[in-house]
């Protein structure tokens, strides 16, 4: 069975994006994302893929889409999260967005890697609320971005 880990950056209101784009630039988070996901399968929705614009290197890129004819170089497609899991098999895979994929995947994930940004950005896409009855925080590293003038934390949650 595929071991799903969700990786996401959220603002103070659980926001993840505005008009299909990240509303912040946080190099520390991008470096964490790259280091964590390199060498693994990443699963995303079509809109998230299109916002990135290309397959991410050194990762197995899987796009979940209902459009059976959609394709892109360097990308595998799956009609659902379950179909993506069937492609991946017995490995860890990272769910990287967007909002609908996160909502679908949170019930299947074993771990959440969340960059919590201590600022609101007026987002129009959101990450689901974390149910503390299902998840327990196991680590937290707090940081300050001098360039952005906000605090952020890398937080890991494990399913109870």
The string of secondary-structure elements, in order, is: EEHEHEEHEHEEEE
Q: Class, according to the CATH hierarchy?
A: Alpha Beta
Arrangement of strands in the largest sheet: 5-4-3-6-1-7-10-9
DSSP strand count: 10
Determine the N-to-C terminus distance.
Answer: 18 Å
Q: Biggest sheet, in brief?
A: 8 strands, mixed
Contiguous helical run count: 4
Whole-number radius of gyration?
15 Å
Per the CATH scheme, the topology name is: Dihydrofolate Reductase, subunit A
Quick overview:
This protein has 160 residues and is α/β, with parallel strands linked by helices. The protein is built from four helices and ten strands.
Structural description of this entry:
By secondary structure, the chain is of the alpha/beta class. It has one domain (3-159): Dihydrofolate Reductase, subunit A, CATH 3.40.430.10. It is built from 4 helices and 10 strands, in the order E-E-H-E-H-E-E-H-E-H-E-E-E-E. The strands form 2 sheets. An 8-stranded mixed beta sheet has the order 5-4-3-6-1-7-10-9, sandwiched between helices. The two termini are 18 Å apart.
